[in-house]
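2024-03-11 09:14:02 DEBUG pipeline.ingest accepted 1 chain
2024-03-11 09:14:02 DEBUG pipeline.ingest length=245
2024-03-11 09:14:03 DEBUG pipeline.predict start
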Amino acid sequence: MGKEISSMENKATGSTTIVSISVISHMQMDLIDNLLDDINTHCRASSLEFILTLNLDESLPVSLDNFWFPIRIIRNIKPLGFAANQNQAFSHATGQFFCVMNPDIRLNNDPFPALLSCLQDSSIGVVAPVVLDEGGEMEDSARYFPTPFKILCKAFGKCKGSDYVVKNESIFPDWVGGMFMLFPSEIFKQLDGFDQKFFLYYEDVDLCARLRLLGYEVVLSPAARVVHQARRSSHGDFKYMGEVD
């Protein structure tokens, strides 16, 4: 994809990277500033790099030197969809694991040790933490595959409740939401990443389906928890009837 659509800024590092975190910004540096501070505070035991894609033209209000982990900046010349942005970020990632994360995620502790422990099982293709809303309630980020009926229910705001009961043990849902997904990099590469025919929604559903077709498990681990500061008003809008995350 390279030079026609992006330019890179790097804060170089000589250490081995375990996890590459990829975050896409659409004029959301206020949220990302908070996320960077959370990682800086809580994730010092993990070997990380942070790949930030600026999908729109915006300035960086923070200095890259303020953080202990390396930060790579991709500045898109023209906006791309979620799938293309994440695949582009992966092409620059150096970590053994690739983490897709929303800019509106907050961390109260380090989720990576528990998630990486799950991925020691080679049958697992992606793992996700439990996602909480700002009130501490569990979001339904692990779901059954969608049906036409469920999509219509969501469009009319009639879908309530969660598909899975999450307690203390890991569960194996059909799919997990794209706000936080951690993959072994080799498996993400094997899949050729997200399908770029999807521009904004359903990429996570499709990718989990393809993982399962290849024989890999999709896992949600209650041992790791993150907070989702969701800022979205598309629910119930027919324009976003495909949105299921």
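2024-03-11 09:14:41 DEBUG pipeline.report Residues 2-240 form a domain with the Spore Coat Polysaccharide Biosynthesis Protein SpsA; Chain A fold (CATH 3.90.550.10).
2024-03-11 09:14:41 DEBUG pipeline.predict end
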